[in-house]
Design goal:
Length: 445
């Protein structure tokens, strides 16, 4: 069913047909369809869905849609949703909805669950603890394989994943892991401690979610255990949750690299004033910092009056310098984000960018010399001055573009801030200083 057919069926009030067709669809697609409707109509159709499907659909709604539905459903409907949602999905919702809605949800939760919710909400935002779930299969090392499989059959239906099971002691300390595959193919009389893997990769509750994402990428896990400072198993993070984190982090980096304040609002749904607010701050900072460029030009007014032709090449030099710096900063920022580059590699980065910049600078300078000497009909000295400046500008730009993100990382600042717009502003000022200094020496002005 597509959006057009859904609206036709609603217009004809064929809700039984809608229910039957939606039951055959994936919950993700159903959520997307219902979000295209006004909230009252969406709620009407949502209430016709089977309870299990309704819970899955609710989990895939946007935060805005969840807020609206929670405020409209009855306490009984809300209790069912809260009871059936996976714990991490419920925490995600509670972190986003208003305080009065959180209170309404907590009132419909069991006391034990309410205590757990309050504990989870105290974890720092963007930490491993804030995105984990408590719905995992735990085993004891003195269990036999047969007992473990029976335990999984009894409890696995309510768990987020059963593919990896976690072996804990009486104090919940993580001792090992065992895969469902290993359990299925092992002799049923073997003990769990005989087949479990003791060298466990895990993260701590307060580790940053970017660190968690790098661990997932490095080891290719489907789930990752989360422990506290005493090594006790607190929860697990599943691959579907970390995919959302990776998407959020990538979006945030792109926004910072484009000189915008990060926001999770969807572009078409965001208010124009909200979008303007996120953009104007950095634009003001960059605009004001660009006054240095104007100051440099004014300082060398006499030079420009004596050789007016030099003015024609200022945009080319500034653009090339900015582009060269942006290339380097983009690659280094991406390398840092993926964990391929660490602060200790600063020397290697600077050396590599220096060599690259020399190669690129020579090629650009030679091509530029012949271009302006042969086709722009300017003198040899002017052509040589512009080309030498271009070479020096490219070298400086690429080294700065490579080193600034590394400095930011060492200072615990997001390296994405040191991207295109900021690099361009710095390089513009430096390229002008280099240009006028070389011109003064070579042209004796």
């Amino acid at each position: 069913m597509d959006e057009k057919r859904l609206k036709e069926l609603i217009k004809e009030k064929r809700y039984v047909t809608i229910k039957k067709e939606l039951e055959k669809m994936n919950p993700v697609d159903v959520a997307e369809l219902l979000e295209s409707l006004d909230v009252q109509t969406a709620l009407l159709i949502f209430r016709t869905l089977p309870k299990d499907l309704a819970v899955e659909v609710f989990a895939h709604f946007s935060v805005e849609q969840q807020r609206e539905l929670v405020s409209l459903v009855t306490d009984k409907e809300l209790k069912h949703i809260v009871d059936e949602l996976y714990f991490d999905d419920m925490i995600d919702i509670l972190e986003e909805v208003p305080a009065n809605v959180v209170k309404k949800i907590l009132l419909n939760a069991k006391e034990e669950e309410r205590n757990l919710i309050n504990q989870f909400l105290r974890y720092p935002p963007e930490s491993a603890g804030s995105i984990m779930t408590i719905e995992y299969v735990d085993l004891k090392k003195n269990m036999t394989v047969k007992e473990a499989l029976e335990h999984i059959k009894e409890t696995g239906l309510d768990k987020e994943t059963v593919y990896t099971c976690y072996v804990t002691d009486a104090n919940r300390k993580l001792e090992g892991i065992v895969s469902l595959r290993k359990l299925v193919i092992s002799d049923e009389d073997l003990l769990i401690e005989d087949i479990m893997e003791r060298d466990v990769i895990y993260v701590h509750t307060h580790d940053d979610q970017e660190t968690v994402a790098r661990v997932f990428k490095r080891y290719g896990f489907l789930a990752l255990p989360v422990v506290d400072n005493e090594g006790r198993l607190i929860g697990i993070i599943t691959v579907d949750d970390i995919m959302e984190v990776i998407d959020q982090e990538a979006t945030e980096d792109f926004q910072k690299m484009a000189a915008m304040s990060p926001t999770e609002e969807k572009y078409l749904e965001a208010n124009v004033f909200s979008l303007a607010k996120h953009r104007v701050i950095w634009l003001l900072v960059l605009m004001i910092s660009a006054t240095f460029t104007g100051g440099i030009i004014r300082k060398f007014e006499n030079l420009l009056q004596s050789a007016v032709v030099l003015t024609a090449f200022i945009p080319m030099l500034m653009d090339t310098g900015g582009n060269a710096g942006s290339q380097s900063s983009t690659l280094v920022i991406r390398g840092i984000a993926l964990g391929e580059i660490a602060p200790k590699d600063t020397g290697k980065v600077v050396l590599k960018e220096l060599v690259i910049s020399i190669i690129v600078g020579v090629i650009l300078a030679v091509v530029n010399f012949f271009r302006i000497y042969l086709f722009d009909n300017v003198g040899f000295l002017i052509s040589f001055t512009v080309s030498i400046t271009l070479f020096v500008t490219v070298v400086i730009s690429k080294v700065i573009g490579g080193i600034l993100p590394m400095i930011a990382k060492k200072l615990n600042i997001d390296p994405a801030i040191m991207a295109g717009p900021l690099i361009t502003t710095i390089v513009d000022a430096l390229s002008l200083i280099v240009y006028f200094s070389i011109a003064s020496c070579l042209l004796n002005i």
